[in-house]
Design brief:
The chain is α+β, with helices and mostly antiparallel strands. It has ten helices and 26 strands. Helix content is 25%, strand content 36%.
């Protein structure tokens, strides 16, 4: 035991000095050893670009979408741990002699992005490499933007109606040759309904008291990707973008205030045997004859339409039974029809504008654009309207011919 202790205590000053000297020598040797390594995917930044020039692939942050691979020689300690994210290449465009610039990359072009790494001290050499940059004339153009149908599904209890506006104009500055292509192709943007929560729409419904909900697109969503500019995002700059809204309809069963008349359609091909003189519609359970007209008297409800639409059309609807020989159909077909649809559509437009909800997007729309949107919505409601019974099941009609009469059962 004493021998072990003597080993450390005997001439300990000399031994400590020797250990210190060894560490210094090791650090000196380790730092003096150079190593060469190729590092790919290094970003390139452009500075001092003339105001009338630009570069294909130049993004709004001054970075180029093309990266560079460099072979670096330097101290082993730094080179072994260096990542592409630790540095970037900085090119001064004011040094270019022509629009076709072959920039020679040297140690002076390296910029450290890692505060703990001093590239000037630890990088000894950059292998010869030229980075070609082509300058183009900077132009500004108006690019059409199409707002696509949203992806995803609406929150539970709501239906997607439409989005407005559907077309915008994006003012874009960039290389002349690329802008001409971009102008021809246009830009597209689509929103995801999955990003809208039920609580968001419920809040708007409680404010307006309307079953039609207009959800204003958040500012952070109003960005369009410019693919030819290195997939760079730009904020929508059309003033109309402030009106971007997605409209939803709260799914509710709405009572129909009027009984619906029921009539018969006699196809021309069968008029010789099936016509009003030989085949009539008979009253029956839930079907009452009044003033010579048969009405369906069961309480009915609608869905997938607004209260305003319901109020406009409820007295201008009829059920049409399509007559057919028994050889063709044992159970007759039927359809729901609207009378004088042009007048109903105009009345709906006028009523909708007169009772405009208070949300900003609708108020600031141009009248013509607003009318186009409402006409499209009216036609959508007509196509989607479905009749339901009091138990909220879809209305079904079973129509058969017996003794020269059409008998109808509603269920």
């Amino acid at each position: 035991m004493k021998s072990i202790i003597n080993l450390f205590t005997h001439n300990w000053q000399r031994k400590l000095l020797a250990l210190f000297t060894a560490i210094v020598i090791w650090l000196f040797i380790n730092n003096s050893i150079n190593e060469t390594r190729t590092i790919p995917n290094i970003s390139v930044r452009i500075i001092n670009l003339p105001s009338d020039k630009t570069i294909s692939g130049l993004m709004s942050n001054g970075m180029l979408n093309r990266r560079i691979t460099l072979t670096l020689t330097g101290s082993k300690e730094v080179i072994d741990n260096l990542e592409s994210s630790d540095l970037e290449v900085l090119l001064d465009a004011s040094l270019a002699q022509s629009d076709d610039w072959s920039a020679r990359i040297s140690k002076k072009n390296l910029v450290s992005l890692n505060p703990s790494i001093d590239l000037l001290q630890h990088i000894a050499q950059v292998a010869d490499v030229d980075y070609f940059v082509k300058f183009s004339r900077l132009m500004t153009a108006r690019i059409p933007v199409t707002i696509l149908q949203p992806t995803g599904t609406p929150p539970q209890g709501y239906e997607y109606l439409d989005i407005w506006p559907q077309h915008l104009i994006q003012t874009v500055s960039g290389p002349e040759e690329e802008l001409s292509i971009l102008k021809e192709r246009g830009l597209e943007i689509a929103f995801n309904l999955n990003d809208i929560s039920k609580s968001d729409l419920d809040a708007f419904k409680s404010q307006s008291g309307n079953e039609e909900i207009s959800f204003p697109i958040p500012k952070k969503w109003k960005r369009v990707i410019i693919q030819c500019f290195g997939n760079d995002y730009q904020e929508l700059n059309d003033p109309e973008a402030q009106n971007l809204t997605i409209d939803f309809l709260r799914q509710e069963f709405l009572p129909l205030a009027s009984n619906i008349p029921v009539t018969v359609y006699y196809p021309p091909d069968d008029l010789e045997t099936l016509n009003p003189e030989v085949l009539t519609l008979a009253p029956g359970p839930d079907f009452e004859k009044k003033y010579g007209v048969i009405f369906l008297t069961k309480p009915l409800y609608t869905k997938s339409v607004s209260r305003l639409f319901n109020a406009i059309v409820h007295k201008s609807m009829q059920i049409v039974i399509i007559a057919a020989p028994k050889a063709k159909r044992q159970v007759l077909s039927w359809s729901l029809q609207f009378i004088n649809t042009g007048y109903l559509e105009d009345l709906y437009i006028a009523s909708a504008i007169a009772n405009s909800p208070s949300y900003k997007g609708i108020q600031t729309m141009l009248p013509k654009k607003r009318e186009e949107m409402l006409r499209k919505r009216f036609r959508t409601y007509m196509n989607h309207l479905t009749l339901y019974l009091a138990d909220m099941k879809k209305l079904h009609l079973k129509s058969t011919i017996d003794n020269n009469q059409i008998h109808v059962i509603a269920y």
